[in-house]
Design brief:
With 251 residues, the protein is of the alpha/beta class. It has 8 helices and 7 strands. The protein has a single domain, classed as 3-Layer(aba) Sandwich (Rossmann fold). A 7-stranded parallel sheet has the order 3-2-1-4-5-6-7, sandwiched between helices. The longest helix is centred in the middle third of the chain and has 29 residues. It starts with 9 loop residues before the first strand and ends in a 7-residue tail after the last strand.
Length: 251
């Protein structure tokens, strides 16, 4: 078997309807995985691409900020025929405002979606994998703001910093139980979440000046790292947070 072959495995990918989640779902499918897409809206395009490559696709529609939604996602995925092999926690939202003006509602909404739901998705998934006696891979989507402070995104920075810590903690607890927990930290990526930054000519220019690769990332740039962390090639990788940032952090 190839070190990067995912044939016979299922991958549950949250936020699979667009951007990074869609690119990762399609990338994992190209490596042989069948996909459960999880999102708040239709995943028609993602499903079409996955099926065009000959892989199965199941969809779960859910608002991950709602209490109890995480366990329900895993139960629904397993009921649809998936096995607990790979979980990619990509779903996330962002709210921008000066810290002096940031609202409690925006704080809670971001933390519930970007951090709380990820922990409980990991928990429900790991319980299923351990009960089934299957080795498994969890890939969390962190951020450059897992390492840096950023500006005007206080709840997002708090969530992504917390996600880095949770990734390490779960790796410590579950490595000996056959579950790898790692994360990808994307750099500045052309997605809906960064539309405002790219539309700001001055901010966009400042960002590009710092990226050694000389361009914003495309969602597809995250797929290879996801395949690596979901595959047998990463069997001895635990608790890593892999920047895919065009060299931003090395600058």
């Amino acid at each position: 078997m190839s070190l990067f072959d995912l044939s016979g495995r299922w991958a549950i990918v949250t936020g699979a309807n667009t951007g990074i989640g869609r690119a990762i779902a399609v990338g994992l499918a190209a490596a042989g995985a069948d996909i459960v897409g999880v999102g708040r809206s239709a995943m028609t395009d993602t499903e079409a691409e996955v099926r065009a490559g000959g892989r199965q696709f199941r969809s779960v529609t859910v608002d991950l900020s709602r209490p109890g939604s995480a366990a329900a996602v895993i139960s629904e995925a397993l009921a649809a025929g998936a096995t607990p092999d790979i979980l990619v926690n990509n779903a996330g939202i962002i709210r921008r405002a000066d810290s002096l003006d940031f609202t409690e509602e925006d704080w809670d909404t971001v933390l519930d979606t970007n951090l709380k739901s990820v922990f409980f998705l990991c928990q429900a998934f790991a319980r299923a994998a351990i009960a089934a006696g299957r080795p498994a891979k969890i890939v969390n989507i962190a951020s450059l703001l897992s390492f840096q402070g950023g500006i005007r995104v206080s709840s997002y920075t708090a969530a992504k910093s917390g996600l880095a810590g949770i990734t390490r903690l779960l790796a410590n607890e579950w490595a000996a139980r056959g579950i790898n927990v790692n994360a990808i930290a994307p750099g500045y990526v052309e997605t809906n979440n960064t539309t405002a930054l790219r539309a700001d000519a001055e901010r966009n220019a400042d960002i590009l000046k710092r990226i050694p690769a000389g361009r914003w990332a495309r969602p597809e740039d995250m797929a290879g790292a996801a395949v690596f962390l979901a595959s047998p090639a990463s069997d001895y990788v635990h608790g890593a947070i892999l920047p895919v940032d065009g060299g931003w952090l090395a600058r």
